[in-house]
Amino acid sequence: MASPTSRFSPRTSWPGGCAAGRWWTSMTDRPVERRGRVKSAGSWAMFGPGDRDAGRYREHSVLKSLVGTMVLAVAAVMAATPARAADPVPPPANYLDTMQWYANAAKAGDPQAQYLYGEILARGLRGNADRNAAAEWFEKAARQGHALAAYALGTAYESGRGRGRDPAKAAEWYTAAAKAGILPAFHNLARLYETGTGVKRDQGEAVKYYTAAAEAGLAASQHNLGLLYLEGRGVPKDPLRAWAWLKRAMDGGYTAAARPLGTLEKSMSEPDKAKAYQILKDIRVKKP
Q: Are residues 32 and 67 in the same domain?
């Protein structure tokens, strides 16, 4: 029997011309564009409609799950293929077969497969993108407690892509995802509370959810939290703490923080700057 776990690497073991190998390369290396900026597919997240932050959370999680499960599927085929000295690497399953395995597992009721199959449909990895069908699979998985599916369903309800636009339902599913620790769900839920979209406007709740996401390293939340401190919404007005959070966001690549940060710095005395830097130093932030 072949032993794929000891020697299988998607970059080196898949024959260069096979569909699975081409898909791996295209999904992990291809550039994608968001708002005029280009990065690799693995570096973008989907926070929600209108959000300018380009983090790494959901996109990285989705790609990791898709590729990881695909590797396991191919490894299973390889393990069942008799190894011969003349065959350096047994041929893997093809791309369409792998997509069908996702479909079969989803139809059998597996929540992880349902979520991933929804992502496949939403992204057009099996023909044309079908957001309506994708949302149906997200909901099946979410109702079984799948956290990322709950988040994806929330974005469908908020944006109106795949579901009729319903901010209240978006808030419900974001809440479910946030309870399971999905960081962008904290950010999106905070936005809804900040603006009173789908929920009763509550700046205190917005601060709570932004803080949780900001402390976990999401630059968009750091920016928005900084603005709340700057304007005294949901928290006492604190320009120095506002500066610290905006600086965190700017350092994290959130360029929208540059303008309010620059305006603040012009009004700060040298002692104020020293205090603000100390606040920045004291903020404990984890990488997302």
A: yes
Domain boundary among 123, 153, 182: 182
If you average pLDDT over every residue of the chain, what do you get? 77
Task: Kindly write down the DSSP assignment for every residue of 196-250, as one continuous string.
Answer: TSSS---HHHHHHHHHHHHHTT-HHHHHHHHHHHHHTSSS---HHHHHHHHHHHH
Each residue's pLDDT tens digit, 204-233: 999 999 999 999 999 999 999 999 999 999
In a domain, 193, yes or no: no
In terms of C-beta density within 10 A (0-12 exposed, 13-18 middle, 19 or more buried), how is residue 226 classed?
buried
Measured at the CA of 161, the angle between CA 155 and CA 166, to 5 degrees, comes to 65
Per-residue pLDDT of 169-192, as tens digits, reads 999 999 999 999 999 999 999 999
- Based on the domain organization, do 239 and 167 belong to the same domain? no
Model confidence at 70, in pLDDT bands (50, 70, 90)?
low
Does residue 168 form part of some domain? yes
Query: Within a 10 A sphere around the Cβ of 67, how many other Cβ atoms?
Result: 16
Q: Answer whether residue 220 is part of any domain.
A: yes
> Could you say which of 152, 182, 212 is where a domain stops?
182
> Got the DSSP string for 134-149?
HHHHHHHHHTTT-HHH
φ, ψ of residue 168 to 5 degrees: the values are: -65, -45
Assess whether 72 and 147 both reside in one domain.
yes
Segments of the chain assigned E as strands? 31-34, 37-40
User: Per 3-state DSSP, what percentage of the chain is helix, strand, and coil (rounded to 5)?
Assistant: 65, 5, 30
Structure tokens that stand for 139 in this block: 């909901």
Quote the domain boundaries for residue 271: 202-288
In a domain, 37, yes or no: yes
Cα 130–134–140 angle (5° rounding)? 155
